[in-house]
Design goal:
The protein is of the alpha+beta class and 89 residues long. It is 24% helix and 35% strand. It has 2 helices and 3 strands. The chain has a 3-stranded antiparallel sheet with strand order 1-2-3. The chain is elongated and about 50 Å long. The chain starts with 6 loop residues before the first strand and ends with a helix. The relative contact order is 0.21.
């Protein structure tokens, strides 16, 4: 099996909504590292690091905030209220 030596390509800034802290909205800024395969015949091309513990790929909320919002909505809280509580002081 061939081993790929990935080359660091810089980073991508991702802003995620997290749970409020002390009554204030919180945004998590994650500088995701980008990697590229140096071989021309590499089918993968490039990718950014992932961490499901922080947030799923292409998510707007952190995993923690998404779980909290899902629990609140599951208990019958209006979605507009859940959104307001995550985004506003």
């Amino acid at each position: 099996m061939a081993q790929h030596l990935w080359r660091y390509e810089g980073w991508r800034r991702v802003v995620l909504v997290d749970l409020p802290a002390f009554g204030r909205p919180v945004r998590l800024v994650w500088h995701k590292r980008r990697w590229r395969c140096p071989r021309q015949d590499c089918g993968a091309g490039s990718f950014t690091e992932q961490s499901p513990q922080i947030a799923p790929e292409r998510a707007l909320l952190t995993t923690r905030a998404a779980r909290w919002a899902t629990r609140r909505a599951g208990r019958g809280e209006a979605l507009d209220e859940v959104r307001r509580r995550v985004q506003s002081p």
